[in-house]
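[step 3/7] fold_predict: job queued, chain A
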Amino acid sequence: MVAEGFVQSIPSACSAVPGLAAPTANVSTLACVGNGVITVTTTAAAGSVTLTLAPTYNFDEPVQWACRRTAGENKHVPSECRA
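[step 4/7] structure written:
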């Protein structure tokens, strides 16, 4: 079907987000899943924090990001991510 081919040709929201090839001094993991949700986990040197960045898409507007801390202490994250 034409519709199936069209849907299959649409890139994923994560297709342009590379994974983390190797841990760094401050970031141990970085992953993108689903509709573009990015999860970053920092090393102990950076506070052992896990942040989730979730996009909201609105036609003709820039992507809006919601940041949430799911592990670690607030003192290690931007104020926008503190719950």
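[step 5/7] annotate
Residues 1-7 have pLDDT under 50 and may be disordered.
The radius of gyration is 16 Å.
exit 0
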